[in-house]
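Batch job 17 of 40 flagged for manual review because the log was empty.
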Amino acid sequence: MSKEKPNMNVVFVGHVDAGKSTIVGRMLFDTGAVSEQEMTKLRQEAEKHGKIGFEFAYVMDKIKEERERGVTIDLAYRKIMTQKFQITIIDAPGHRDFVKNMITGASQADCAFLVIAAPAGVQPQTTEHLWLLRTMGVKNVAIAVNKMDAVEYKEEKFNIVKEEVGKLLQGVGINAATTPFIACSGLKGDNVAKKSANMPWYKGPTVLEQFDSFPEPKLPTDLPMRMPVQDVYEITGIGTVPVGKIETGTMKVGQKVIILPGRTGTGIQGEIKTIEMHHESLPEALAGDNVGINIRGVGKKDIARGDVICEASRPPSIVEEFIATITVINHPTVLAKGYTPVFHIHTAQVPCQFVELIEQIDPRTGEVLKKNPDFLKNGDSAKVRIKPQGNLCLETQKENPYMSRFAVRDAGATVAAGICTEIVKKKA
């Protein structure tokens, strides 16, 4: 087997109807990953649903319900080969109710495209998407200014959007001057996989070329093996197959593992029997790989989304409480002690209570502004003490940054985002 190109996970985020799925579908079609035949079939189906021009989006939105509603619900994965990388595209939903899926998507991404529709420009959720990307540790972001065909490919419209988005980028600590902005049209195929003749003024890369401009992801293979479970399938002849992305370390066939918290809340022991990636059986897989595995001694009832498959010799802890640094992004009023929203940590969703607001800090310098503030409002950063109201497996940023980040959600909105810095372990 030839040495494969390094894998890079790229997430496409943006407001509903910004055209993320269309860009991705167009790219898959123009690079030959989707056949002319399949495309014709999807085009007919789009017309049947009265959704002319949605055929490219249909490549990603394979779920029937999505076709009828015209929105992306679950995360879809597709592969594209570029000069340098094997790209796994994660098409993350932009729709309000689906931000939680987007969180699990962004937490798997090495880099991101934020898709903005040229006619609409910045939307209320754009800031939220940027905060999430930043908190989830996605450092490399490119902006795709899509639907340029709808603004007659005008340079001034592109520049207006660029300026608006630039302000938001600075606000979340991303340098707008070094961020690539791509003028494109997913529907017409301008600057997606092929250079456009409609925008002679645009000198930048296509979306496809931009993939190769992102730095190669450095794999955290030196850290202990961790694989948060995204889904669990029952496959005839194999049995229970958890799937997910290996966040850190190396997974090997025969490796002793522990599933935390597992059904028991104290962990379940097992051994890696098989590892599959892209329908191929492998002896080992590394951080960054999306895999499906089978574990000896582990059945359907033992494991669920949100569990973490860990190296048995170096397991993380189930936490009693933890201290975190958070930033309030979007709370309707103020965040006070006693508040119990849902925390999204790797692929887990657990209600947690803010038991103490320790200190408010200046997000730029880290200096303490106020001890024990009564409440926190949008834009505030603080050190807080949190108590999970269920079993949760988590690590500190120092031990394993990949397993320390989280988003806080309430009533369909992302309230805050943060990073765990200290842990009090649960007593056995």
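Reviewer: the log was empty due to a logging misconfiguration, but the result itself is present. Residues 114 and 221 are 28 Å apart (CA to CA). Unflagging and moving on to job 18.
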